[in-house]
């Protein structure tokens, strides 16, 4: 295997000039963490289908969890800086970025946004410091793209809520100390906090994955699971609340996919400069190779600009879910195509785990599907530009 040069970034259009010193510092902190701590171990983690739990305290110490949230120990950085962190983490592996996304956008965000002051004081410092791990339980075995069809229920009995139902494809489920669970009540869909060890609450890990192998994916079961009434998230009323959380997470995915694309592109670029064929010339000298590299750098650059603009709008309070749908849909599809083109350029070497290409490609197949499929985001955009909902 040819030793790849350390990652120096991908910036064809001088996009770094759009970032502040603080934003660049956040990116450099995450970039160095990935170089020093993720890259050396991630191949073995993927082989072993193991999430590197040992990195959780380090990521917490660097302020990655809830980094764009305010108070309760959170770093309070802007959304562009947060996006740059997730970009670098997914350059390492989608599973690492996914852990941070879930902890931050799908657990800490709903507690901060919909929780009581007591819930915020109890959970947010623990989640920010990595002393507690969370998960977000919305998807069910029969309802993925249509969460409004959920069958999980919660009924009020005295000073308790009793939950029944199943959730699946839940990142961090079996290692989570607290689950943000969405269930149907007589008053509509509500959000609840369910703690690990609660009677009637059980988890099981999903095995046999060819994608997101360095990530914990689980199924959750609730059988007459009784939780105290104070575990209801008081502000989480209706499916809209759950979708607000997904918008936060999809924003991070839009940035993270750029990191995976950058890693594939830079691996292919360096490889084609040293791989020689036909008269001992580097294959980078051939037109068809250059065309693929040109496509990748152009699409990565466009994705960067899209992410920066959505991030700036988000910091101004002007970004909405349709903007985020465009970001997520475009950037993940772009990254997946970059992975496929890069695999092509590496030839047979591209299928080995000496290089990161196939790992990114397999991961991105999942990233394209979760948090709203490519098709669902197309329909969100279609509804925005026509005024007609075509989901059914």
Explain this structure:
- The protein is α+β, with helices and mostly antiparallel strands and 392 residues long.
- It folds into 3 domains: 15-128, Butyryl-Coa Dehydrogenase, subunit A, domain 1 (Orthogonal Bundle), CATH 1.10.540; 134-238, Beta Barrel (Butyryl-CoA Dehydrogenase, subunit A, domain 2); 240-386, Up-down Bundle (Butyryl-CoA Dehydrogenase, subunit A, domain 3).
- The chain has helices at 21-48, 56-61, 79-92, 94-114, 117-128, 239-274, 287-315, 321-346, 357-369, 374-386, and strands spanning 134-137, 153-157, 160-171, 178-185, 188-195, 201-205, 217-228, 232-237, 276-277, 281-282.
- The protein has a 4-stranded mixed β-sheet with strand order 1-4-5-8. The chain has a 4-stranded antiparallel β-sheet with strand order 2-3-7-6, covered by helices on one side.
- Helix 4 runs antiparallel to helix 5 (117-128), helix 4 (94-114) runs antiparallel to helix 6 and helix 7 (287-315) packs antiparallel against helix 8.
List the helices and strands and how they pair.
Blueprint: H1 21-48, H2 56-61, H3 79-92, H4 94-114, H5 117-128, E1 134-137, E2 153-157, E3 160-171, E4 178-185, E5 188-195, E6 201-205, E7 217-228, E8 232-237, H6 239-274, E9 276-277, E10 281-282, H7 287-315, H8 321-346, H9 357-369, H10 374-386
Parallel strand pairs: 1-4
Antiparallel strand pairs: 2-3, 3-7, 4-5, 5-8, 6-7, 9-10
Helix pairs in contact: 1-3, 3-4, 3-6, 4-5, 4-6, 6-7, 6-8, 6-9, 7-8, 8-9, 8-10
